[in-house]
Amino acid sequence: MKVSNEKVVSLTYELRLDSPEGEVIETLTADSPLTFLYGAGGLLPKFEENIHGLKTGDNFEFNLTLHEAYGEVNTDAIVNIPISAFEVSGKIDHNMLRIGNKIPMQDTSGNKLTGVVQKVSNDTITMDFNHPLAGSSLFFKGEITEIREATDEELHHGHIHNTDNCRGCNDCGEYSRQCC
To answer: What is the dihedral sign for C-alpha 19, 28, 118, 115?
Structure first.
């Protein structure tokens, strides 16, 4: 069986910044592989393109330019938010508002996003909502560990069904791990 649309793919990898010699950002091992529904849009398109057609046991190694990965840093995604937006029951948790902290938030349309605290002042908090790897080229080296047919339910929901992962499915209450 080969990596293609409507297949559930499991793989391990080491992710480095820029090149094979770059800083290690993430390592996924056989104990905790990335498992996903190929072609469902959960991964970077160029990542999927680079593993298309591989078989179980095949190794891969490739670079993604910053434009193929998460793009340039978008200065419009760095915003000042009034400190009052962080009030809960009339109080502000200043421990939460430390530089470098990641804070889960929601935009006015209800979309979930994570911002990183960049600056704290008396009136505003500067938050960066860019992907943490925006502005970076990426190097992946790994192995395809398993490929199987997706179930009809997985195809309908657009992700795998596996309760020991981390992202909720609004349709079914199951969880799905999404890469990068």
So the answer is: positive
Closest by Cα among 104, 25, 33, 32 to 70? 25
CATH says 75-128 is which class?
mainly beta
pLDDT tens digits for 18-60?
Answer: 999 999 999 999 999 999 999 998 899 999 999 999 999 999 9
Residue range(s) in the chain whose domain bears CATH number 3.10.50.40: 7-70+134-157
**Sign of the CA dihedral with 54 first, then 57, 63, and 65 last:** positive
Give pTM, 2 decimals. 0.78
Instruction: Give 68-94 as a DSSP string.
Output: TTT-S--GGGEEEEEGGGGEETTEE-T
